[in-house]
Design goal:
The complex is a heterodimer. The longest helix of chain A has 18 residues. Chain A folds into two domains: 144 residues, 3-Layer(aba) Sandwich (Molybdenum Cofactor Biosythetic Enzyme, Chain A); 89 residues, no CATH class. Chain A is an alpha/beta fold. Chain A is built from ten helices and six strands; from the N terminus they run E-H-E-H-E-H-E-E-E-H-H-H-H-H-H-H. Chain A has a six-stranded mixed β-sheet, with helices on both faces. Chain B folds into two domains: 257 residues, no CATH class; 192 residues, Rossmann fold (3-Layer(aba) Sandwich). Chain B is built from eleven helices and 20 strands. In chain B, the strands form four sheets. Chain B has a six-stranded mixed β-sheet with strand order 12-17-18-3-19-20, sandwiched between helices. In chain B, helix 8 runs parallel beside helix 9, helix 9 packs across helix 10 and helix 10 crosses helix 11. The chains are: A alpha/beta, B alpha+beta. Chains A and B meet through helix 1, helix 2 and helix 8 of A and strand 20 and helix 11 of B.
Chain lengths: 259, 483
Amino acid sequence: MSAAMGGSIDAFYEGMTEKKILHMLMQRGLLAKVNLCDGKETGKTEVNRRLRDVVGPNVGTKQVRCLVLRDLDERETMERIKQGLQTALQALYRERGHPKAVVRFVRHRAHGNVYLHTCTELDVRVALHIATYRHLPDFCKSTIDDYVLRVALHHETAAALIKRQGWSISSKRIIHKVTSEIPALLKQNGIPMMGEAKDFIHFYAALLRVHTSPAVFAEKILHHAPESELREVFAPLRAAAEFLQDASSPSMPGDRLPA
Amino acid sequence: MIDSIQIRDFRGIRWGEVDGFKQLNLLVGPNNSGKSTLLEAIYLGCTAGQPAHWEGDSFEPAQVSLSGRDFLGDLPLLRVLKRHRYHLRKAGQGPYRDGCLNISISSPAAPLRRFQLHVPDLPILPDSLRDMDSKISRIEIDEGAQVALFACASGRDAGRAERALAGRILQLLSPTQGAGSTRQKTVQSGHKTPSGPNKQRRTAQRGARPSSGTAGPGQQTAIPRRPPAAQHCIYLWYPDLTYHSAGVAAWSLTGKLASPEHVLFFDVSNTHYHFYKTFLRDTMTRVPGWTYKIADCLREVLGIARSFDFHVQFLPAKDNDSLIQGWIAPRDQPALPIDAYGDGTRTALKILASLLSLVEQATADSPAVLLWEEPELFQNPRMLNRLLREIARLIEGKPLQLFMTTHSLEVVACVAMLVREGLLPADSLRAFRFSLEEGTLRSSWFHADNLLSWLERGMDPRIWDTLGVPLQFTLKEQEEGAE
């Protein structure tokens, strides 16, 4: 395959939050350039279909690099998500006249929530990142919002957001309100505990008077977060992108990635 | 319907293979990526229909076919040569005597170098074609110069000798063969005494060919890719039309081909040329209300359905009485020749007039093919959109296969929208993106969902890499995205 036929990284994800996160990580120089492949329809069922539609014409004719971001929803398992993508890729290869191409995902050595697939003969690489971090163990699912929340609750991020508002309140107080006082208040009033990170994000945004969607709020959070925190929280995502980016790396480069 | 094509050494293509053609095929890609070559290969392949009789030492007398006239009455080989401004000249022919042409091809790589074609009724070059291009003078033209290719079949219905001949041609299509390759043992056929017209065999109707078949006993090696399917094989020895003047070209088509009289090749020249009178005569007898239908369609395309009432007429051209010219006759106003209008309107009238006639004549047993080069030419995007919609309406449910080359994202987007709106069945559409690297044709294909997904995301299916200019299909950004 000639250099002229080389491709870029296409990213597929469930919703706008992932898009904003990827965008901000790229903007801050923490992620290689990826093409953001969202569509009118959002949600997990759309991801594999979108991948097939976008990537299909390039399979076998051009370098293909795909970054797939998925949440770990309630009653969902990593194995099932991996299997679903595997099936979709197998169908894609079949459709494109390569029924014998093997689809096998291998777990990243350093990051258990990242799976990697390489098809050398078709010059295809796919990295699957599954959001497995949960802010609270009681949450019903792990989502990309959990990662955002973790960054948001970093005292430097909170301080930057407070400063942006021109307030003099300490970051510690804001974080305490989000993580302790509000949940306690809900509990006192007999209101069920918030079940997912997005609920916390909403309260957080309301406290800071940031009247926007969780996706755009996530972008603002990442914009104000310290780089070291972003590097740490999004290390698996960056490792997945690095696998796609590095043409010379071995198929499973986990040992070459930063810890 | 044509399913696939394999090409060796035809024009800029050293080797190429494309399969999976659908009813509606969009051919996109950079300049010099093989789109037009593919269109011409299909054109010449489908129009090789005039029966002739081939003789050589290694094969028994076999049936072959030469170019017949196409739907509009053009001679396809001449049309292709004219498109590239090649001077018409003899290629390999000895004199035409007693209904026979002796062919002698100088290229040492040619697998068939000396043979005899029995063509008692050699197509005569129409005066209109001679006159239209000053570079082609009467003195240069010999009727034999029109014969530079023949076609034969490899299917079971073909005769033994024909299959043997096809097998020899198909060998050329192997990716390991090609320009300059002399691994193929050449056939040296002696010149026999010409046979009279009564000895010639009629070529079988191509429409009756089976969908699969086996190679003939004369075939020396297996065909590399698709041996089971019946293939329509074309052998061309006009040097200017071969890859780097290799001397010979070969290609094959699989599927059910249109007969020559149902093949419409439409390019920029159609805008400026008149129809033949014979086309008008045939159409008027076969398509009732043709001129009224043209007027109705044209009104839709021009977007003047209610405000401008006119009818369409065809009258002999002033400068050549074998040609006819379209006229638009508004109610209560003098009629004007279509050539008085802009090129966009002229093109629209001519494609609509042609297609309205073609779709009425095509049948399941004798399907049609429309080869349309760059429909966007001369068209404002709005009118282009209406024209493509009208074309989609006309071909709906008809046994017509459409191949369109385009550089226009608007054409691609319009066709995709027609699918989304249900005006074209999704499974009837396929877009092919081409590139040509050192003569090797590469392609990738898009089904309707691929196309829609790409367009929605601002991705350009016409190009392989980046466009290099800040142009995107859509620049929508939902800052306050709902989640």
